[in-house]
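I hope you will forgive my troubling you with a question about protein structure. You will find the record immediately after this paragraph.
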Amino acid sequence: MATSVRATGGGSAPPAAQAPGSSAGPGPGPHRQRPSGLSGWRSTLYRLDLKAVPYVFIAPFFLTFAAFGLFPLIYTGWLSLHRVELGGSAQWRGLGNYSALATSEFFWNALANTFTIGVISTVPQLLMALGLAHLLNYRLRGRGFFRVAVLAPYATSIAAATLVFAQLFNTDYGLINTVLGWLGFDPVAWESSKWPAQIAISVIVTWRWTGYNALIYLAAMQAVPQDLYEAAALDGASRLRQFLSVTIPSIRPTILFTVVVSTIGATQLFGEPMLFGGSVGISGGSGNQFQTLSLLMYEKGWVTGALGQASAIAWVMLLLLLIIGGIQALISRSNRSRSRARNRNRRTKAGS
């Protein structure tokens, strides 16, 4: 019987019977086609829900970014092309603010100070972070406590940390000069001399950020396969050789990331030198010996009222950060290319 039913109509199943009084369309009554108006409205809502709702969910971020990120950036660029003073109207200057910076000794002094403070704070900081992460990567007792402890300086307020270090480096009654006196050295003018002041500020930056970078390195080290260390140990490599030949190459992208982030932070250095200098912190000391680009921008904009020049400094800092980012991208691409080339060579040797 079933065979005869399937054979009816050239092998196709007979159409299902429609319920009495139902509208045209296939299927029984409960699954019949809805009226065209209702179906079209619900179909439109479905398409909106599918295509538009994701944009609604991410819209708050883009609106916030446009209001507090993109608009200030564009407006600052507009101000940098004008002569603007607090309470006054804008006057077109073109590239006059930038040409004035090119001939300003204060700008070049601030740029040199930013570079030197960045170098003497970033290099020791990252080297110590590498060593500290290598120690924390061992199976030490209480290593959870030590991992939390190294992050404590990062959680400390910039103002609190800088004020404490300012007392330690005080020329007259600071602990550092007291210890130097016990050792037979003369007191150091930490605030009024150029290099001592920059070293003191670099110590503050290093103290705050070493633990943070150490935890980043530690996370990268824990992702290195243990098979590499076991193979190196079988080849007779010492702990130091394993660190130099296995750990460092494996976490090279992380090291590059921390170098770039630390360089960006050094370029934007503001709180530490301002609070360290006290009443002359904005000018970077009595002789501008530790004035950074951020301090110069603040002084031009809110002390002298030259908002156009301050905006030009801000865009120069943005250009420096873009150059740093471009260098990072080139180095990363070069490292990836070399890594792919080494992998191809290994596969070729293994195949031969």
